[in-house]
Write a structure and sequence with these properties.
mainly alpha; two-stranded antiparallel sheet; 270 residues
Length: 270
């Protein structure tokens, strides 16, 4: 966040980082308080349609700005290795899936094979990958559709430019029949939310890419698999008594097979 702030990207100002664990039991940092709005539900209940549209467009502008930064000029040595970032991501996800798999799902393994086979080698220069880029991780101006600060950077690493974009567009593809969140929906449904095509077109205008985006099905499949791994990991941890979660283990477990089926359909696997 310090490096991004120095590059004039919208993040909270960083005041202090303390490595002395004797004070609070762990390292900690202090950052600027941002007075603004946060939207836990990306469907923005209560927000007028014209502002909803502008907020979504502002989020895409923030993403394009992030990916346009000259990272060679920033002090970012601590966020990982730039070599073959997609292979790194898939290795990590596939290992996590196999480690937490309690019931064999052949289609999940076919999806992993498909992702390995279809991994793009497009020569794209790695960019800063936020890892959880969504409306709720942006603090917004109290009255205007202006992104004041992007937050929640603990998963930041190097990545392909389309990874964060596909994650932002993931709700367009989430099946309504599988909605499970008790507060807010996963899918984008509200009036005013631009279509995926409109958001991708804006992204391309800002970044110089062309439509259709190459390998878009691959990136959607990768995002779906990441969500599948996240859910399965939570199920495994809660089942082993390693934590609590507001949803039942069964309700989450029941999502896994249909989500794998849906992901396979998106990428064209029968």
């Amino acid at each position: 966040m310090s490096a991004l702030g120095e590059a004039s990207f919208p993040v909270p100002k960083m005041y202090l980082f303390c490595e002395d664990k004797s004070i609070m039991g762990q390292e900690f940092y202090i950052m600027e308080y941002i007075k603004g709005r946060q939207f836990p539900d990306a469907n923005l209940p209560g927000v007028p349609a014209d502002q909803t549209k502008a907020i979504f467009e502002a989020a895409i502008r923030a993403l394009a700005q992030l990916q346009s930064l000259d990272t060679d000029q920033l002090n970012l040595e601590g966020i990982g290795d730039k070599e073959d970032v997609l292979k790194q991501r898939m290795d990590m996800l596939f290992e996590a899936y196999k480690k937490t798999e309690r019931k064999s799902n052949p289609k999940a393994h076919r999806l992993m094979e498909w992702l390995r086979d279809k991994k793009p080698n497009d020569g794209e220069k790695p960019v800063i990958h936020h890892e959880d880029f969504r409306i709720s991780n942006i603090l917004w101006h109290p009255n205007e559709p202006q992104a004041l600060a992007v937050i929640d950077w603990e998963g930041a690493c190097w990545g392909h430019p389309f990874e964060d974009l596909a994650y932002f567009c993931f709700p367009f593809h989430f099946p309504a029949a599988l909605e499970f969140m008790p507060a807010g929906k996963i899918g984008y449904y509200s009036e005013g939310i631009p279509s995926e095509e409109a958001l991708l077109s804006l992204y391309c205008d800002l970044t110089g890419n062309g439509l259709p985006l190459p390998n878009w099905k691959f990136f959607l499949g990768l995002v779906f698999f990441r969500v599948i791994v996240n859910i399965q990991t939570v199920v495994s941890q809660v089942s082993d008594g390693g934590g609590e979660f507001p949803l039942t283990i069964k309700s989450m477990s029941d999502l896994l097979e249909p989500l794998v089926e849906h992901a396979c359909t998106i990428v064209g696997l029968q």
